[in-house]
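**Protein of interest**
===
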Amino acid sequence: MTIDARASARPPTQPTAYDDAATGRTRRGLALAVGGLCIVLDTTITVVAVPVLMRELDASLATMQWTTTAYILALVTTLPLAARLSTRYGPRRTYVAAMLVFALGSVLAGLASGPVTLIAARVVQGLGGGLVNPVAMMLLMRGVPAAQRGKVASLLGLPVLLGPLTGPVLSGWLIDTWSWRAIFFITVPPALLAAVLVRRLAPPDGAGTREPVDVRGLALLLPASVITVLGLGEAALPAALRLALIAAGLGLMLGFVRHARTTSAPLLRVALLWRRSMASSVVVLVLFGAAYFGSMLLLPTYVQVMRGDSALTAGSMSIPVALATGLMMQVATRLVDRVEPWRIVAAGLTVSLAGAVTLAVVLRPDTSYVVLMAASAVIGLGAGAVILPAMTAATRDLDGADLASGSSVMGLAQQLASAFGTAAVTALLAAAVAWRAPLLDDGLEGAARLSGPARADVAPDLVDAQRLTQLAVVLLIGTALVLALTLMPRASRPPKSQPQEDR
């Protein structure tokens, strides 16, 4: 019998239940990635539009900044509700409803007649958008063996790769070709597509649980989240008021934690934070997230204020960072299935630390932009091995209501870390500028108005101030690395067996 004859005599290979489940999960993950891309695009495309919105709507910068602040506040309001809504109504229904609310907010934003209506529309967008990522994690991880959750989670990293690369360019093209309204309308079709695909591809929801609503938990956690983020992120507020808001928000959060540990049906199962895997991942993610997201404003500030170049130049320099972060996220999150997560996170922190130190060392008034982009890309490369792998490590052993609460806790921690990091870096930079350039009127705002020889005279002092701030970023990343090496190995253990995957 010839080789061809023997081959033809073999029975055809039949797809297994595992292959079917994996294929269905991949399709579901891509559908969820479409929804996640809408949220990332919505964040990146509006940044470029702020000057145009100020002109077209005849509004001040402080007013237009509320289009971002209102969105974030609405987002952190719904984050804690993701777990309860998913367990009560089912994650598929919750996700579809969230995407429809987001699409409605996008339409209202595109039709806005002034600053007030635009800010209100952004609130609607945030109410839907805050549910998307944590519920997507629940939908994607449901029924997946813990040993394969890294590969699955990497699908949720696709928006992080595509959004920052396409958002600013797409926004500029839409504004120049059509109008600022188009940047909101453009997210409506993919949002509706994501809702339809997830409704079709995700497994049907069960009956859900009818636990009583934790009214006291809602009364504590929702204002705690909003007040804390407002105090951390709203630089226009007086310093004393911001400190009071932060203190009040943290006090309410402590009250919620105490309440959640004693009630039978808490809004979030904060007892998960007493698990080593969750606690160590949250601590590392908060420290690194504060450093990473906070430092994002340093390079644009250097380019526009200290070098006097355009916003387009500053935006273009963020492309290598986004590319490095997104690509590494795809690789590192898949490695979580084969390598202990703490090793991947520690390696990522080491790489980011090297990039942050390099950036602090090479920063000069005339440093090559190529060198700065390379150092920033190294930081982004490490970030890709930290953020999503740490979140995966924290939730890989959770199922059901625990997975719902764990995803919400991680999402809320990331938002708080981002707000804290941005506020801390802004305050440190302002203080450093006041110290190094005391004769400069109005600090950084005054520096932004300088041009030519006047800017060149103060540039060395301004760069010194930025270098000092960059050292604070180095300290935060270094602390996260030490804690990752000491806490995460103790929490590391082989993933437990999981039930058969759903389709």
Q: What stands out?
A: Residues 1-20, 494-503 have pLDDT under 50 and may be disordered.
